[in-house]
Amino acid sequence: MSEILVLYYSRYGQTEALARQVCEGVDSVAGMSARLRTVAPVSTLSEATTGEVPDNGPPYATTSDLAECAGVVMGSPTRFGNMGAALKYFLDTTGAEWMKGSLEGKPAGVFTSTSSLHGGSETTLLTMAIPLLHHGMLYVGLPYSEPDLSTTKSGGSLYGATHVSWSRDGDRLSDEEKRLARALGGRVAAIARKLQD
Fold this sequence. Notes:
Layout: E1 2-8, H1 14-27, E2 32-38, H2 63-68, E3 71-77, H3 85-91, H4 95-100, E4 107-114, H5 121-134, E5 138-139, H6 148-151, E6 161-164, H7 175-196
Parallel strand pairs: 1-2, 1-3, 3-4, 4-5, 4-6
Helix pairs in contact: 1-7
């Protein structure tokens, strides 16, 4: 069984909800399984240290997760049209993997959540894609053959799966958002399997 790393940062639960849908999509592909990981939060105080790994939820990612998996699907909430600092901080620690070419030729996809329809979701997806492209990964988006891209009134993009929370609490994804997140996970997993064959 080959694994796809589903790596995310989530502050209020919406991005985690998308990540879990991506995992379902990965798990739907024969011979593939999702490895769900999150990243540690960062502090604005330079003296602060990160807390211990929480008792519940997925473990914190390590750079070895990147090398061990056949592909990556990465997600973050939108922060002014960019990925969250915690995910960027983790990516900034992957120089050794870049030097070794650990991710070269592996498929990668991205997902995000934002509080408003025009809140920068597509630019966030692209900012997450840039370091993955620097690692030599093969970027996987969502094609228009996914019918939900043409009908959604909330999240969804050719660049990856998205969720719009409309500034409400909770992780209530629309049906279209769920299907698109699962489609993204399934596409990355299916491409990884073909590449391995």
